[in-house]
């Protein structure tokens, strides 16, 4: 697990991550940027996180995989799809092994759902 509170940005974080994790971290970051292009990149809790109207997701390398966490729960349908494809999931997390492809379509769906919820929360607060 790599928590680093001393890096200034995600580029620095990835640069000091274990070498075997860097390609997967970069690929995951690209998928997140494509799914949520307006998201702000920050280091929070010692790991890369993405914010848009609140936190959306974050990731960190572990031994043999990248742990990817979401602020909201992964829908049962998406979890079932991910698990059928060999990804280990929790209610708000998924593991992407270094030898697995990044499941871009599922991640985009999860992030889209989260952004919609964040927008709804902001609209409710504005009332």
Q: What does this 3D model show about the protein?
A:
The chain has 127 residues and is α+β, with helices and mostly antiparallel strands. Helices cover 42% and strands 24% of the residues. The protein contains four helices and six strands, in the order H-H-E-E-E-E-H-E-E-H. Strands 1-2-3-4-6-5 form a six-stranded antiparallel sheet. Strand 5 (88-89) and strand 6 form a beta hairpin.
What is the structure about, briefly put?
It is globular, with a radius of gyration of 14 Å.
Mean pLDDT rating: 91
Give the structural class: alpha+beta
Distance between the termini: 41 Å
The helix count comes to 4
Helix content: 40-55%
- β-strand percent reads 15-25%
Oligomer designation = single chain
Residue runs with pLDDT of under 50 for 5 or more positions: none
Number of strands: 6
Q: What is the H/E string?
A: HHEEEEHEEH
Sheet with most strands: 6 strands, antiparallel
Shape: globular
Radius of gyration: 14 Å
**Spatial arrangement of strands, main beta sheet:** 1-2-3-4-6-5
């Amino acid at each position: 697990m790599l928590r680093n509170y001393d890096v200034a940005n995600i580029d620095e974080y990835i640069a000091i991550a274990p070498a075997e994790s860097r390609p997967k971290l970069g690929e995951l970051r690209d998928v997140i940027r494509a799914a949520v292009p307006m998201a702000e990149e920050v280091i929070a809790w010692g790991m890369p996180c993405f914010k848009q109207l609140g936190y959306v997701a974050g990731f960190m390398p572990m031994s043999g995989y990248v742990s990817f966490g979401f602020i909201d729960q992964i829908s049962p349908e998406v979890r079932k799809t991910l698990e059928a494809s060999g990804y280990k999931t929790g209610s708000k997390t998924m593991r992407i092994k270094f030898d697995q492809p990044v499941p871009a379509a599922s991640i985009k769906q999860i992030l889209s759902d989260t952004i919609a919820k964040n927008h709804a929360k902001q609209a409710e607060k504005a009332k």
